[in-house]
Design brief:
By secondary structure, the protein is α/β, with parallel strands linked by helices. It contains eight helices and eleven strands. The chain has one domain: 3-Layer(aba) Sandwich (Dihydrofolate Reductase, subunit A), CATH 3.40.430. 23% of the residues lie in helices and 23% in strands.
């Protein structure tokens, strides 16, 4: 993996982690919201309904490193089901980056956004998380009370919104709990909600050298329109290249 903008050179692990270091989010409940997504050259966010076919070894390493840097990993319920999410296991997916967790818990918890709490409450994601990183369920008042109570037996439950999840309230609740460095891993509907509320500070986007053809979602889908009906402008912070894949980090203008 080499940095192609700015400059052009191979990177050590320490230098790579330095490129992705979070800015200081300030006092709680302030959050810095980073999204990490992958897309084909023609904008597809998945192949066959999953992201794996768009990824690469370099992308997977950055994925694991970003998880190690984060305080919490935010994901929509649809993506959690499609990608078969489980608790982060540093010994299998992020051992190379374990040093980034020095002074913190061995792994970050996963926070699942679900309006109706239509999750498998017996799954590894909810029932198998380690004590230091219990899964967080972010749901609504409208979710069945019995399912909220059942989820709370093994996970932490945050109610944010009445019929729909209020993303701003959810982030404030996470920040208030000390989870200020947020890594959003999608899917496209959750990313659209975050961006539509003007809450996306940064986008890490891997561009895969593939043409997927028509039919697949973009990295944002549905959700709210952009704030005040206009596009948001981001600045390219850096770009890396590995075997034809471009790994770009964009930061929203006016933040950081």
């Amino acid at each position: 993996m080499r940095q192609v903008f700015p400059g052009g050179s191979a990177l050590t692990d320490a230098a790579l982690a330095g490129l992705y270091a979070y800015p200081d989010p300030g006092a709680p409940p302030g959050c810095w919201v980073r999204a990490n997504m992958v897309a084909s050259m023609d904008g597809a966010a998945t192949l066959g309904g999953r992201t794996r076919g768009l990824s690469s070894e370099a992308d997977e390493q950055v994925f694991a490193m970003l998880r190690a840097l984060a305080d919490v990993i935010l994901v929509g319920a649809g993506t959690a089901r499609a990608e078969r999410y489980a608790p982060v296991r540093p010994e299998s997916e992020g051992l190379r980056w374990a040093w980034l967790r020095d002074g913190r818990t061995p792994s970050a918890p996963i926070a699942v956004v679900t309006r109706a709490l239509d999750l498998d409450l017996a799954s590894q994601l909810l029932a198998g998380a380690p004590p230091h990183a219990r899964t967080i369920v972010i749901t609504t008042q409208a979710a069945p009370a019995d399912r909220r109570a059942a989820a709370a037996r093994t996970a932490e439950v945050i109610v944010a919104g009445e019929a729909m999840v209020d993303v701003m309230a959810a982030l404030e609740a996470l920040g208030g709990r000390g989870y200020q460095r947020v890594l959003a891993e999608g899917g496209p509907h959750l990313l659209a909600q975050i961006a539509g509320e003007g809450l996306l500070d940064e986008l890490c986007l891997t561009v895969s050298p593939l043409l997927a053809g028509p039919g697949a979602n973009r990295i944002v889908a549905g959700g709210l329109p952009m704030p005040r009906g206009g596009a948001q402008r981001f600045t390219l912070n850096h770009a890396l290249e590995a075997e034809g894949f471009l790994l770009c980090r964009y930061v929203r203008q006016g933040v950081g």
